[in-house]
User: Fold this.
Amino acid sequence: MDQNQLKKAVAEAAVAYLVEHVPVGAVIGVGTGSTANLFIDALGADPGRISGAVASSEASAKRLASFGIPLVDLNSVTELPVYVDGADEVTTDLAMIKGGGGALTREKIVAAVSRVFVCIADGSKLVDRLGRFPLPVEVIPMARAHVARQLRRLGGEPRLREGFTTDNGNIILDVHGLDIPDPAALESTVDGITGVVTVGLFARRPADVLLLGGAQGVEIRRRPAAVSVP
Ligand code: 5RP
Assistant:
């Protein structure tokens, strides 16, 4: 199976997860990227499974709407039962690097309001240690140079994502060459730099469930600490 087929397999496995664990007609959170797109397509083939979705990007909102799936404002819900999204890297502890598609801030917001984060990823995304994928950082434009200096102090080499503006009107610095032995600590440190909107480390709120696509099929992994997660 090629990478796209693996992504399709995990996207379909995520719909099967919904069938098993989420009541019909629930409102769920939907992520961004090529794997999330395939999940949206699979949802579109099962009308009525959900009554609406909170999207983590304008692109996902558009795709959901193309299937007639109602879009829900996050401010109108107190909790989402589940958030389904991809990742650029994921560890065995289910900490992630996200933001390859530039939607990291809204992804983190939707994840924060969700009871269960289901990460869907092909096997190439599983890593022992985060950091080979350049770490995306969303930055307020006027703070670009200041934030870049601070990121260099942390040992990284920030590069401006050329020609890209986030849905929130900001820029992305992709940080190369970082060693990330403690993702949660680095998440706090980078989030603490003035001018940073969000860092694409998802370690303080990692995924709860990982649907990982490989040659043998889709493996389900649960974060050890997420004991109450179905
Ligand atoms: C977008 C993301 C995506 O989930 C991540 O980039 C993975 O993308 P893909 O499913 O296309 O491999 O974080 O901001």
In short: The first strand starts at residue 26 and ends at 30.
